[in-house]
Design a protein that fits this description.
By secondary structure, the chain is mostly helical. About 75% of the residues lie in helices and about 0% in strands. Among the domains are: about 1-30 and about 140-245, Tetratricopeptide repeat domain (Serine Threonine Protein Phosphatase 5, Tetratricopeptide repeat); about 35-120, Serine Threonine Protein Phosphatase 5, Tetratricopeptide repeat (Alpha Horseshoe).
């Protein structure tokens, strides 16, 4: 359940939706969870460790966050940044073991939440969450984690209920508000998702507790939501604002291809698509962009057909909504290309 594993949920799902291009901002109130308050006396040390992490000095950053956790074991952001530092320095098994050791040696809500966050297995995560909930049934982080796990496992109704409990506990909890955006996108509420994500970014971009990668991923999502609502300028703006070092290169290239194609820059879109396909040949979005480049305006029906076959094959191996949507879109496009080819052949024979 680390930040890197939790991110990236909107990129394909936003292809499913459309709406208007006017976007208002739904402000996110200040958080009230006691587990998110960084004591003033520790803020300077937190910022120093954070700067080391951002510079890539992960070992001293980890040591700094470990010291902060000893001094304030109930501050969840200290633990999140410690885990992110540990993730850079070791493997998932080591991260899980160290998180579990901390929860055993220093039991408490935050240490047990961190043990849950380090799990890759939902059942194991739920076991640790149950311990944390027994200590504090109103902890927003417990309900947020339950909503995240339910959404990841496709239990959407459970995810909504858990998210409601999280936001009832703390309406300003940034991780819960971020998850809310993902659920809105999944439900097809594009404009509501855009408004809430805009509000999230306004708060998160200047909040030192938020991981830089989370902000960059959110800007990618904001760009794609803007593209889904034909707001090309906003999409370009969000891509220009994000830190390219914090996101997967193929995802950024795929969205740059979307913007270039909408701008009519076919050559530029082609370059970005080629880069994205080379970096991530098994991902759906770059393949879709390639197919669209060949297909739009009947530019190259033969290559378009081959590209849509690739999309269909990639989507068939996906078990999420995006895969189902792209399977349908590929089938529709292939049938249309075949109908047009058959009609052209009949017309030629009639002459």
């Amino acid at each position: 359940m680390s930040a890197r594993r939790a991110s990236g949920g909107l990129l394909s799902a936003a292809l499913l939706v459309a709406g208007c291009s006017m976007t208002r901002v739904v402000e996110v109130p200040e958080g009230r969870s006691p587990y998110d308050r960084v004591p003033d006396a520790l803020m300077a040390d937190f910022r120093a460790a954070r700067e080391r992490f951002v510079r890539g000095d992960h070992a001293p950053a980890r040591a700094g966050f470990e010291r902060l956790l000893v001094r304030a074991p109930d501050v969840m952001p200290f633990g999140v940044w410690w885990q992110e530092s540990e993730a850079w320095l070791s493997d998932p098994q080591t991260l899980r073991r160290r998180s579990e050791e901390r929860a055993v040696l220093a039991p408490g809500v935050v240490s047990e939440l961190l043990a849950a966050r380090a799990q890759t297995d939902s059942a194991a995560a739920e076991a640790w969450l149950a311990r944390a909930e027994a200590r504090d049934p109103d902890c927003v982080w417990v309900h947020h984690a339950r909503a995240f796990l339910a959404l990841r496992d496709g239990r959407i109704d459970e995810a909504r209920l858990a998210l409601e409990r999280a936001l009832a506990s703390d309406p300003g909890h940034l991780p819960a508000r971020r998850l809310e955006v993902r659920i809105l996108v999944r439900d097809g509420a594009t404009e509501a998702a855009r408004m809430r994500l805009s509000g999230w970014l306004e708060r998160a971009a200047s909040d030192p507790r938020v991981l830089p990668g989370e902000v960059a991923e959110a800007r990618l999502d904001a760009a794609l939501l803007a593209l889904a609502t034909d707001d090309i300028g906003r999409a370009e703006h969000e891509l220009d604002l994000l830190d390219p070092e914090q996101v997967e290169a193929w995802r950024l290239a795929a969205l740059r291809a979307c913007v270039a194609r909408e701008r009519g820059d076919v050559a530029g879109a082609r370059r970005y698509v080629d880069a994205a396909r080379a970096q991530a040949p098994r991902e759906i979005l770059p393949a879709v962009q390639e197919a669209l480049l060949f297909d739009e305006g009947g530019r190259d029906p033969f290559r378009a057909r081959a590209a849509w076959v690739v999309v269909r094959e990639l989507a068939a191996g996906s078990d999420d909504l995006a895969g189902a949507f792209e399977t349908l879109r590929a089938r529709v496009r292939l049938e249309r290309i075949d109908r047009q080819a058959a009609a052209a052949e009949r017309a030629g024979a009639a002459r």
